[in-house]
Amino acid sequence: MRGIGGLGGWRWIFIIANLFFVHNYPATAKFLTPKEREYVLARLKDDSDATRNERFTWTGVRRALKDPTIYLYGLCFNTPALPANTISLFLPTIINCLGYSATQAQLLSIPPYVVASITTMSTAILAERTGQRAPFIIGSSAVSIVGYIMLLPAAGQECRMRGRS
Predict the structure, then answer these.
(1) DSSP letters along 61-82, please?
(2) What are the residue boundaries of the structural domains of the chain, listed by start?
(3) CA-closest candidate to residue 40, choices 19, 54, 15
């Protein structure tokens, strides 16, 4: 695509990616004419609140701090995030305890993340198309719980047997 629209090929990579991943990108897109920008922003405004400008106020902060749903959201977000982040940090160690070298353990930790990335994007697309979030969140959480139950005791037992705990 080098040269199309007077832009370099590398710029098109970012333009195309942003069209899919950044919902209010047209507001700052230099390759759109002002009329096109206005049209896209009008469509976005009708479709979602992605283009709504909200100003910071301390009143809004106080109102948010008094809202119990903020704390519930924090609990709901951080509870599954903690084990997810923990497993990502210790997965090479767990694989190493299964008898693989450090280099092999690092390489063997790649496939689960590739599968997880594909699954995450597929689940997000399906949830968006169906308009249903809860079943996908519950299903993903159930699969994660089962996976942790299967993985951690076996890896921990192997490490203890090798004297590496």
Answers:
(1) HHHHHH-HHHHHHHHHHHHHHH
(2) 4-47, 80-162
(3) 19
Cα–Cα distance, 158 to 156 (Å, whole number):
5
**Gap between the Cα atoms of 162 and 165, Å rounded:** 8
Side chain identity at residue 147, one-letter code: G
pTM: 0.43
Can you read off the two tokens belonging to residue 24?
């209010």
CA–CA distance, 12 with 18 (Å, rounded to integer)? 10
* Residue for token pair 């599968």: 115
How does pLDDT run across 82-121, given as a tens digit for each residue? 777 777 788 888 888 888 898 998 899 889 889 989 998 9
Q: Give CA–CA dist 162/5, Å, rounded.
A: 62
Give residue 157's identity as a one-letter amino acid code.
Answer: Q
Q: In whole angstroms, how large is the CA radius of gyration of the chain? A: 23
Residue located via tokens 């084990």: 83
- The helix or strand, by DSSP H or E, that contains position 130, with its residue range, turns out to be helix 110-130
